[in-house]
Amino acid sequence: MERHDIQGLGPLVITGQARRGRLLLAHGAGAGQDSPFMQRLREALAVEGVQSLAFEFAYMQRMRDEGRRRPPPRVETLVEEFACWRDSMSQGSPGPLWLGGKSMGGRVASLLAARDGADGLALCGYPFHPPRKPESLRLDHWPRLSSPTLVIQGTRDAFGTRDEVAGYALPDAAELHWLEDGDHDWKPRRASGRDQDGLIVEGARAIAEAMSRHACGDDAWPSE
To answer: pTM for the whole thing?
Structure first.
């Protein structure tokens, strides 16, 4: 794991080697890159040969500096910030760069991809709707998604369960990998016989396989 400070953008945590690709990875609304979930996900991705480039939005950095919580800014602001990170990470680096994130971070990545396109998307616990508000769908931009899009979702996710998502009209570019009995943080119930670490490993493997499957042309990463 390497920590870098990118001028004008802030700190970046780089984990793993890009044997199967690079993933620019954003966090969720309430927890940054130091959350146990994000740390374990980056470690699992590294094992699978995916290099994660993990950044934090400016509001999260201010939370750390001020020592108090603050809400995220408007999503349009986050999209522009994500775009700056994408542009910086794309300069002078070979191979495709996938965009992705946890919950809100994945939503922002998908909005950016719908606007500008992307080599691919990895959305971890996509917030299809707010909890207990299944009518408030966050899918208006999805018809504009044309890049390979992988959603890794717990079957019990309060932001979109398997039964709920089955009724959505998703674009052909989208594919779903369901983590059995996982919630929004991919935590299963003890009675399921599964554990969160196992589901994180499964999710990371699904991301790596999707990146390998969609790699093609001169910019593709070499297969293992």
So the answer is: 0.92
CATH superfamily of 2-214: Alpha/Beta hydrolase fold, catalytic domain (3.40.50.1820)
Residue pair 82/112 in contact (Cβ under 8 Å)? The answer is: yes
Q: Report whether pLDDT(224) > 70.
A: no
Report d(CA 25, CA 27) in Å as an integer.
7
Largest CA distance in the chain: 49
Residue type, 188: P
Q: Cα separation of 86 and 88, whole Å?
A: 5
Rounded CA-CA distance 125/200 in Å is: 11
- With contact defined as beta carbons under 8 Å apart, do 155 and 162 qualify? yes
Is the per-residue pLDDT at 218 higher than 70? no
Per-domain boundaries in the chain: 2-214
Instruction: Take residue 184 and report the two structure tokens written for it.
Output: 């929004």
The Cα 11–Cα 219 span in angstroms is 27
- How far apart (Å, rounded) are the C-alpha atoms in residues 154 and 142? 20
Stretch among 93-97, 170-174, 190-194 having the lowest mean pLDDT? 93-97
pLDDT tens for each residue of 71-97:
899 999 999 999 999 999 998 777 899
Tokens of residue 44, six digits? 């699992």
